[in-house]
Give the backbone structure.
Amino acid sequence: MSSILIIQTGSPPADLRMQWGEQGDWFCSALTGLGLAVSVVRPHLGEALPEPAEVRGAAITGSWSMVTDREDWSERTAEWIRSAMAEDLPLFGVCYGHQLMAHALGGRVDYHPGGPEVGQLPVTLSAAGRADAALAGVPQQFDVFLTHEQSVLDLPAGAEVLAGSAHDPHQILRYGRNALSVQFHPEFFPDLMRSCIERRRSSFEAKGADVAALLAAVSETPVSRQMLRELCAAAAGRV
């Protein structure tokens, strides 16, 4: 049995992939030293998702795809999420995974009317987030890495908001006892975040963004990285 299943939702653009590898690599690197048996499945390449009972928990990665495209592999993964929720499997969605979980469970995902949210930015815990046992020890406000165009616009029934940002009020969602998702990227590291900004420099500058300021703001995001590690370790029964 795999301790943690990484569900990789697509591949990065070729330039990022050549420099930094695949999303699954970033998650595996973030979980180094925890002693977890980690496996990666790539449904976008036709790889079959295991039965939820065959893993202890799953993390669903970000993607350069859009949930609203309703690609076949994505919809199959959404069905798997519904099955995993029925089994009370620990789930942790990230960016696309966050949106896909909301979509799978009846929420609405679409392009954010305020445009993309990119860079190192603060998120703030809600009252529910401050009271949530999974976020014990997390400061009320902390920096995260963000790069997304779509958002969870309407919550699934029963979902609870644990944190938000000035741009997007749905930064951390709880869907049940063992299911959380985040819009930000706890698996990112500073050089990867800078690469994501730099490769879109011309687009940002055309919209009046201060790219130099975006790049200068990038440092470390230890709170979100530790959140990823602790949630995966807990799912695997290591804490």
In short: The CA atoms of residues 151 and 199 lie 22 Å apart. The mean pLDDT is 96.
